[in-house]
Amino acid sequence: MPYIANKDTKKYYAIHEVSEMVGVSETLLRYWEKVFPTINPKKSGRNIRQYTKEDIDEIRLVYNLVKVRGMKLATARDTIKKNREGVTGVSEVMQKLLDIRAELVSIKKELDEI
User: Fold this and answer.
1) 5: number of CA atoms within 13 Å, CB side?
2) What is the number of other CB atoms lying within 10 angstroms of the CB of residue 70?
3) How many Cβ atoms are within 10 Å of 40's Cβ, its own excluded?
4) Per residue, what are the HEC states of 28-91?
5) Averaged in consecutive runs of 10 residues, what is the pLDDT profile of the chain (114 residues)?
6) C-alpha span between 82 and 114 (Å, rounded)
7) Are strands 49-50 and 42-43 parallel, antiparallel or unpaired?
8) Contacts from 92-95 at CB under 8 Å and sequence distance 24+?
9) Which DSSP state fits 23?
10) What residue segments make up the domains of the chain, in order of their start?
11) pLDDT computed for residue 91 by the predictor
12) Which pLDDT does position 1 carry in this prediction?
């Protein structure tokens, strides 16, 4: 049986992987890199972006502020600068709640099939 690497053990992720994880386009990720200096993926010799877990967490934070809460980009950037801990805490709670909801929906679907 071939060994399949667990995605949680990866050190770097390609832009298309991050795009799928977060649910935004690659173009939007590149744009957010310009607007939010805290999103700073490593670039290889051929200028290929390599995102770390920390980069992905930062992107999810921006996603929460811009897409979920509806903030303008400048407001989201200022909010992160002024209150990073508070925003990060709220973002983590929101992500956990979304994960729980997805699992509950999955369980309900399985129960409906019985």
Assistant:
1) 7
2) 9
3) 14
4) HHHHHHHHCCCCCCEECCCCCEEECHHHHHHHHHHHHHHHHCCCCHHHHHHHHHHCHHHHHHHH
5) 50 93 93 92 88 91 88 89 71 78 92 88
6) 50
7) antiparallel
8) 94/64, 94/68, 95/60, 95/64
9) T
10) 7-113
11) 67
12) 33
Q: pTM to 2 decimals?
A: 0.69
Helix/strand/coil for 24:
coil
Question: Hey, which residues does 49 pair with through a beta bridge?
Answer: 43
Residue among 93, 95, 90 nearest 56 (CA): 95
Fold of 7-113: Multidrug-efflux Transporter Regulator; Chain: A; Domain 2 (1.10.1660)
